[in-house]
């Protein structure tokens, strides 16, 4: 399994253990058995999306420390932030938990 895929699944488990509902988003160009191309999702869609136990939506683009941020990914994350959702690039379980729950922590202070 690729490093990024392994990290993404570990992040999904960590978030679900905190009560989040989380979905893996597959996007890209795939081919049917008879060779026809099929585009799934939108270019730039975040790898993981879901919501916290309080219903606040989040979108996470998972990258390894060597991973590069694509332009379409940057635009998608910015659009989700503008809509009021939590969105960002994460490179570890710790970063993902901090991003998803930071606003909640600030509201409890």
Molecular structure report:
There is one protein chain. The protein has 109 residues and is α+β, with helices and mostly antiparallel strands. It has a single domain, classed as Trna Endonuclease, Chain: A, domain 1. 39% of the residues lie in helices and 25% in strands. The protein is built from 3 helices and 6 strands; from the N terminus they run αβββββαβα. It has a 4-stranded mixed β-sheet, sandwiched between helices. A hairpin with a 5-residue loop joins β2 and β3.
What is the spatial order of strands in the main beta sheet?
Answer: 1-4-5-6
Here the CATH topology equals: Trna Endonuclease, Chain: A, domain 1
* Unreliable segments of 5+ consecutive residues: none
Write the element-wise H/E pattern from the N-terminal end onward: HEEEEEHEH
